[in-house]
Write a structure and sequence with these properties.
The protein is mainly α. Helix content is about 85%, strand content about 0%. The relative contact order is 0.12.
Length: about 350
């Protein structure tokens, strides 16, 4: 009802405030202070105003695609619940996306900008390669893990917990199945969502705001076309798949254009190098996926909330542990580089 909607809105606002407040102790620890000064004639302000609009447009491509997903679902799917299935599937996908893509892109941006400001393109692209390697190292298993464990996670998050905490049982087996399907197709592209965010920052470091915007416009139209094509046979799952395909295409095009901005590699080589970096994480993630899939049979679904919570945590923990083991066996060098990153 209306009160529950208001509670959700306030929760989002409070969460945003806490996100800022939680960083204050760290700023105090490092004696970082901020004193606001208003200087409208400062050249840095003029430069920021010139660059900020295309930057926002470039970063908004993913969100624009999501809005178009909901519009297409409203227009082309007669069955009720399509938008809800897309929304819930997307919200679960957003957690690893924010953890991998947004946080890593935010962390690496100052280093990319520093190299670019010193015109050290070699150092900048080395840093970019490290960041993309980390994004793949974490993003690929997140994709495979969510695909394998999407059903138990959704069943736990939207049926078990609401039933136990609020005595709400509005999430039916059909709703679970539809949301699972959407999450599965969204999850396929988690690694690409994060890599796009990082690659965009490389363009921004070079003060090239136009290329991500131009590519983003084409991607939005591509996503709409794919939505219309796939919504017929796959319904809302096809819309989720079109978002993933658009993200992968976005990444490939961005890497292709980025390769033309350095003398150290060609456009084709940069794309091929990225695909090469994808192989080992994919192998380890597939082995992890087989392990998790086996765990689904050894840990059957339980109607009791506490037992089902333990089951989901156990399956996720099994996935993380097995991936680290396989990574130690097959990509030990990358694992060491990530553990010692920026030390």
């Amino acid at each position: 009802d209306e009160n529950k909607v208001i509670i959700i809105a306030w929760s989002i606002l409070i969460g945003g405030v806490l996100e800022v407040v939680i960083q204050i102790p760290l700023l105090v620890k490092h004696k970082i202070t901020y004193k606001p000064e208003i200087c409208l004639a400062h050249p840095g302000l003029k430069e920021t105003l010139r660059l900020i609009l295309p930057t926002i447009l470039g970063l908004a491509v993913f969100q624009v695609n999501l809005v178009m997903d909901y519009v297409i679902a409203q227009l082309f799917i007669e069955e009720h619940g399509a938008i809800s299935a897309l929304y819930f599937g997307n919200r679960l996908m957003q957690f690893p996306f924010a953890l991998i893509g947004i946080s890593l892109a935010t962390a690496v941006f100052p280093y990319l900008a520093d190299y670019a400001a010193r015109n050290d393109l070699s150092g900048m692209f080395t840093e970019l390669n490290k960041a993309l390697r980390i994004a793949l190292f974490v993003g690929v298993p997140a994709s495979i893990g969510l695909i394998i464990l999407s059903e138990p996670i959704i069943h736990w998050a939207f049926y078990i917990l609401p039933s136990a905490l609020f005595q709400i049982k509005a999430f039916t087996s059909q709703a679970t199945e539809r949301t699972t399907s959407c999450l599965t197709f969204y999850a396929i592209g988690i690694w690409s969502y994060g890599a796009v965010q990082i690659t965009n920052r490389a363009f921004y470091s070079l003060k090239d705001m136009k290329t991500p915007v131009k590519v983003g416009v084409y991607i939005v139209f591509t996503n709409i076309i794919l939505n219309i094509i796939l919504v017929g046979p796959l319904k809302e799952s096809g819309i989720a798949l079109s978002t993933t395909l658009s993200s992968v295409l976005n990444l490939v095009i961005l890497l292709y254009f980025l390769g033309g901005k350095t003398m150290f590699t060609t456009r084709k080589d940069l794309v091929l190098s990225f695909l090469k970096e994808l192989i080992l994480p994919l192998i380890c993630s597939i082995l992890m996926g087989v392990t998790c899939y086996s765990g689904l049979y050894y840990f059957p679904k339980c109607p009791k909330a506490l037992a089902e919570t333990a089951r989901v945590i156990g399956l996720v923990g099994l996935g993380v542990f097995s991936y680290l083991v396989f990574s130690y066996l097959f990509q030990r060098k990358t694992l060491k580089q990530i553990l010692h990153y920026r030390k």
